[in-house]
Amino acid sequence: MGMACANPSCFFCIMKEPESSVRRVGIKNCFREIPLTDDQEHVLVLSGLFNIAMTQPDDPEFPSLGIFPCMASLINRAITDKDWLLKHQNVYIPYYAAHVIGSYTMNKVEFAEIAVESGVIPPLMELLRGKLTWVEQRVAVRALGHLASYERTFEAVAHYEQELVELAMKLASTCLDMVFVEFVGVNDEKARLKYHGDLLTRGIGGMEMENRKAEEWASQLQCWCLHLLNCFAYKDRAINLICRQEFLKDLCQMWGGLVNHSSPAGVGLIRILCYHKPGRKRIAESKEVVESLCNLSRSSDDWQYVGIDCLLLLLRDQDTRYKVMETAILFLVDLVELRSLGGRSYVGEAITRTLLLDYNQTMSKLMNNKFAQRSLEETWVLKLEKKRRERMMSTEKVEEKKVLVSLIKQQGNQRCWLGEVEDAVVKYSEALDLCPSMLRKERIVLYSNRAQCHLLLGHPDSAIRDTTRALSLSTPPNSHRKSLWRRSQAYDMKGLAKESLMDCIMFINGSINSETNKRIKVPYFAARMISKQMEATWLFSAARSKISSTQHKKGQGSDEGGNEEQDEMIRTMMENKIFKSGLSTIIEEPLIGKGGE
User: Do residues 490 and 464 touch, judged by C-beta distance below 8 A?
Assistant: First the structure.
């Protein structure tokens, strides 16, 4: 038999108490005493609470017995008592405490109200200010985002509105650089904060796993900052603050990527801003943001429909319509035949109606841009005049045109095989002009073939236009494999790595799904493209390019960012050698939005 526990206040023994009333009294006393005592077992208690909160976030027992004031007091103690923080394994405690708060406030507004009444916001703000490290900032912004997402607790968070919004904006813009400089870019394992590595992988994965987990956490930190900003922007709060031009440009580069694909990241916040008139005004003034939305609208990214939504919101507002029309029409005209996207039907029809709104006035406004004028006129002909004529066309006439289109396509193919690429473009264009719009499959092939010719001629913009039209006609959208690969190449030619990567991934997925045998082979050329674009779109690629200039600043104690206290804390932790590993693995909840009550 094991030895009996000699500690009458042992949390784990109290948890085993069969009598419910006795157990509850014991837990309540534990929560009251833990912040006041100095016991090396506290980190084990916090680790256990962390796991319980993660697996049972809706259980009311601990929130009703005082877990929130306990966690708030522990965070305060960690911030104000550095000797205590560096004693035993207490350095883990503020992370666990903030995480527990975030887990219990994730789903239940009642728990969020108890947390606010218990005073959790001030210590969480201290962590967000950077009093410890980015690891604690991550869980602090997560918890604050949960509190801000409820109607009944929003105002308590909004008490710090300006500071909180500015902190979240700054952290969203700088966190990737910070995590790279302080952790991922540190190649000497001994030079890393050991407790960071332990929290990331629980000491069982080595540097490669630590780096992968740090990439995931850095993306979550950025996305949770954006979620917090969303909570304010949704309520039409701090719009002018968030819409600073430099931050809007930063938003265009914030991408959840492959490590955090469930978050719309920067474009999600841009869409919220587009719902508000001041937000639309500022976004329309930013050429970089509009172009970013345009590129997204013609990609196979999961958030393509969000980019389209933003552009349509800008175009429907008469105060911003003509500021973005010349740019947006060149992209949206390729999407007018989309049927459904992102769970929405008649997407192409919505685009068409928005583009053709006040047609004559729009044509007049585009007088100095003949290409934009031609694009709008093409939409008018394709969606109105051509369809009107085709409604009068007999079945026999359609079949006759189908045969003729096939013959002209074959002529185009022959020209292409002979190397007469420009002549092939002429033939494919002739076939497209003749082809009835109802023959979607035939038009997909014609657009895709013409796109291949544009690639051979070194015209990536034309190739992107034609492949996008082919992909808009495909069912489901973005599923025509040859067009995906051709557009991936075209985007690569233009240096648009993210768009090229997403198309290439969709191309490979299509190849895998089309294989009938069990041995799936990824084409070498596609694997090479994936490798190239993964390198270019790596979450820390921009930070890595800056490392040569920033690593010396950090070593010299640069006050850039105004965080000397955090630098001193990191140095102190590096000198402390008593931290141990062997803790259990963290599995985060998926980053999904939830409606506030």
Answer: yes
Which positions ≥6 away from 236 have C-beta within 8 Å?
276
* Four-residue CA torsion sign, 549, 551, 552, 558: positive
Q: Which of 13-22, 123-132, 431-440, 507-516 has the lowest mean pLDDT?
A: 507-516
- DSSP states of 211-240: HHHHHHHHHHHHHHHHHHHHHHHHTT-SHH
* Position 12 confidence tier, pLDDT thresholds 50, 70, 90: confident
CB of 300 closer than 8 Å to CB of 502: yes
Q: Which residue has the tokens 């809706």?
A: 58
**Burial call 132-163: b when 16+ CB within 10 Å, e when fewer:** bbbbbbbbbbbbbbbbbbbeebbebbbebeee
Identify the pLDDT of residue 263. Answer: 85
Give the SS3 label for residue 343.
coil
Task: Name the DSSP letter for residue 382.
Answer: I
**DSSP E strand boundaries for 109-231:** none
Quick count: other Cβ atoms within 10 Å of Cβ 458? 9
* Terminal C-alpha separation, the chain: 51
pLDDT reading at 585 higher than 50: no
**Whole-angstrom distance, CA of residue 309 vs CA of residue 316:** 11
Q: 356-375 in b/e burial notation, b at 16+ Cβ within 10 A?
A: eeeeeebeebbeebeebbeb
Q: Which residue has the tokens 């393509």?
A: 304
What span, in angstroms and rounded, lies between the C-alpha atoms of 97 and 88?
16
Residue 114 burial (10 A CB sphere; 0-12, 13-18, 19+) = buried
Q: Which of 426-435, 449-458, 559-568 has the lowest mean pLDDT?
A: 559-568
- The rounded percent of the chain whose pLDDT value lies above 90 is 75
pLDDT tens for each residue of 326-364: 999 999 999 999 999 988 999 999 999 999 999 999 999
Of 103, 104, 66, 74, nearest to 91 by C-alpha is 74
Q: How many CB atoms lie within 10 A of CB 571?
A: 11
The pLDDT confidence band at residue 550, using thresholds 50, 70 and 90, is: low
Please report the pLDDT score of residue 137 as a whole number.
98
Task: Give the C-alpha separation, 418 to 422, whole Å.
Answer: 11
Q: Where does 317-369 have alpha helices with state H?
A: 321-332, 347-355, 359-365
- Tokens coding 572: 């102190």
Q: Are the C-beta atoms of 416 and 449 separated by less than 8 Å?
A: yes
Is the distance from CB of 450 to CB of 429 less than 8 angstroms?
Answer: yes
- Residue owning tokens 């989309």: 338
Structure tokens at 188: 């000497």
Backbone angles phi, psi at 341, to 5 degrees: -165, 135
CA torsion, points 555, 556, 557, 559, in degrees to nearest 10? Answer: -120
